[in-house]
Amino acid sequence: MKNIRNFCIIAHIDHGKSTLADRLLEETQTIGSREMMDQVLDDMDLEREKGITIKSHAIQINYNHKGEDYILNLIDTPGHVDFSYEVSRALAACEGALLLVDATQGIQAQTISNLYLAIDNDLEIIPVINKIDMDGAMIPEVTDQIVDLIGCKPEEILLASGKTGIGIQDILNAIVERIPPPAGDENAPLQALIFDSVFNSFRGIIVYFRIMNGTLRKGDKIQFVSTGQNYIADEVGILKLNMVPKDSLSAGNVGYIITGIKNAKEVKVGDTITLAANPGEMIQGFEEVKPMVFAGIYPVNTDDFEELRECMEKLQLNDASLTFELETSKALGFGFRCGFLGLLHMEIIQERLEREFNQTVITTVPNVSFHAYSTKGDKIVVNNPYEMPDPTRLDRIEEPFIKAQIITLPEYIGNIMTLCLGKRGILINQSYLTPTRVELIFEMPLTEIVFDFYDKLKSSTRGYASFDYSPIGYREADIVKMDILLNGDKVDALSALIHRSRAQDFGRKLCEKLKELLPRQQFQIAIQAAIGAKVIARETISAMRKDVTAKCYGGDISRKRKLLEKQKEGKKRMRQIGNVEVPQEAFLAVLKID
Ligand code: GDP
Ligand code: MG
Prior knowledge:
Blueprint: E1 4-11, H1 17-27, H2 45-50, E2 57-65, E3 68-76, H3 84-92, E4 96-102, H4 109-120, E5 124-130, H5 139-150, E6 158-159, H6 168-178, E7 191-200, E8 204-213, E9 215-217, E10 221-224, E11 230-232, E12 235-239, E13 243-246, E14 248-250, E15 254-258, E16 272-275, E17 293-299, H7 305-318, E18 323-329, E19 333-340, H8 343-357, E20 361-363, E21 370-374, E22 379-382, E23 394-408, H9 413-422, E24 426-434, E25 437-445, H10 446-450, H11 453-460, E26 465-476, E27 479-486, E28 489-490, E29 496-499, H12 500-517, E30 525-531, E31 534-541, H13 557-571, E32 574-577, E33 580-583, H14 584-587
Parallel strand pairs: 1-3, 1-4, 4-5, 5-6
Antiparallel strand pairs: 2-3, 7-8, 7-16, 8-15, 9-14, 10-11, 10-16, 12-13, 12-15, 17-19, 17-20, 18-19, 21-22, 21-23, 23-25, 23-26, 24-25, 27-28, 27-29, 27-30, 30-31, 32-33
GO cellular component, one term: plasma membrane
EC number: 3.6.5.n1
Enzyme class: hydrolase
């Protein structure tokens, strides 16, 4: 055990974690040059395309330091706030962390939030200024920022480039010399922390764990503490680029276990694996992941509902943080109300449904989860506008609040104040991290963040602001349900729950946006926004005069077919509601309102 080091790499998004991991793997010949590619651990298609890490990854590195062999277990973590629970569990599986800071960017919001997570988990922190090969590298400034932030000595900060390989050897040495070996007792009852799982269609769910105490052997009867379910350890092993089976693994090690579980819901990140015969206690810090944002997902074609259900179930095997239940919409028919960790998560689910499962879907207006209290004192959890009780039966509504942390340059404080106060934010604190870097803390309603906050923040600071948030509970709010009517028909999938003070403005803008997005038809379309029976905004789309298809020319058949196919393609994401055709963009129009 004294020759094991478990570490992770933490950083703000894009500061170079995955690239640095590549270099560590290359330098130690963990991955041969033939298998090497950029961000090799991001093995999901979508990860490779978006250039972001969605799932945690673990890999074992063998390293010889001053004539002694060491095992270094590297856990790569996702950086985006939507996946921060995974980060926190991955950190709990380590004794140390490389904290990367991009030399051209300096400290950003997730640098700080991830650092706090690392400190909470008592990790040894090795600060690294990364990307020093770049022209804009500000090594002295970033050194000062890091010294201020973590209180280390300047000489303790390593300089590196994941691109060119500068400093990689220093990092490997520091991992061995500064990070403590794991503690733990091989002979105590088994306690292994689950920090991730993946679905494999041949083997079922593969669970990644770190053993804190005890020993796990192939063939053992194991138990998941939070669910009390028992399984047989069909295979246990360590993680190289591929899985390497072993007869047993003991305290301090990182590995995988295969038990033939097919249902992702049985495996929870943060849960503890123990032995059924001699159970150990739950490792502290386990939390069920709670969805933050809800939206409907519907098949474009109502006939495809059953197929979509199968695909959602399969997708959930791979992403246990996705929740869904059946819902019906008058406008859209059968579909699912889904819970997501955030908007990025929602976008990823929609894309995975399309790419991996070939499903064309419509997602409806996302909303947060409200708590409604009836006059009788019942609490109703409202994840969907239609679940909101009638105003006459309503005592009060509460909405989720978050603590937002924004780091920016002093010249943008004014813009950020305007933006956040306009979003019902309350300024809690303003402090200078360095003379050129200021941190603002706001308390804000989550619902204001969900829509377009991040884009607005970027545009009002020309990209010089980073943002992170964490939930801080529910507070009373004056929330109303706003409906949209097309030619007098209420389109339930376009209903939204919003703050009363915003309803008027929001309704007007939404009607304007819908006017832009709905295709003109042979007849006039009236678009109305209403709260209860009261219409608060209205727009009209005038009727189309001429039939455009008459303009289609004869002649070249294949060209004509191409044109038709193109039109079909364009139509794919349309739904007929009453007599009005509504494209997918319309359902997400709320996200595009400024
Ligand atoms: P992550 O989000 O922290 O995992 O960051 P990535 O490793 O995906 O890197 C983000 C971007 O920065 C990619 O375009 C990388 O090619 C680039 N990058 C990463 N490390 C370096 C570096 O040391 N130097 C330079 N010039 N670019 C880098
Ligand atoms: Mg990455």
